[in-house]
Write a structure and sequence with these properties.
Elements: E1 3-7, E2 10-12, E3 18-25, E4 33-39, E5 46-51, E6 58-60, E7 68-73, E8 78-83, E9 92-99, E10 103-105, E11 109-113
Parallel strand pairs: 2-11
Antiparallel strand pairs: 1-3, 3-8, 4-5, 4-9, 5-6, 7-8, 9-10, 9-11
Length: about 120
């Protein structure tokens, strides 16, 4: 079965850092571009970051550029999202997504930025 399992979310103060992980299984991870999305209450799901199959190219939403870093380890079938200088507006459920033709989604992990 295909599984994407996110971890690393939690409560952090503004200016703090978190690293999200997404462990994949059940498909050829290295063949899929990987993304992190987030969805805040009452808002649409938005793309935060994207990384190509080899990690050679990345994309970031303007709202996180310079603060977040996406990376992947194809040997470990895992994608990461390093989040620094977190702001209250980063509060959301964060989802990882594997995309080739269709898409696989994880269950999400909550990130709350609050003092």
């Amino acid at each position: 079965d295909v599984q994407l399992v996110e971890s690393g979310g939690g409560l952090v103060q503004p200016g703090g850092s978190l690293r999200l992980s997404c462990a994949a299984s059940g498909f050829t991870f290295s063949s899929y571009a990987m993304m992190w999305y987030r969805q805040a209450p009452g808002q649409e799901r938005e793309l935060v970051a994207r990384i190509t199959t080899t990690g050679g190219s990345t994309y970031y939403a303007d709202s996180v550029k310079g603060r977040f870093t996406i990376s992947r380890d194809n040997a470990k079938n895992t994608v990461y999202l390093q989040m620094n200088n977190l702001k209250p507006e980063d509060t959301a459920v964060y989802y990882c997504c594997a995309r080739l033709i269709g898409a696989y989604w994880g269950q999400g992990t909550q990130v709350t930025v609050s003092s």
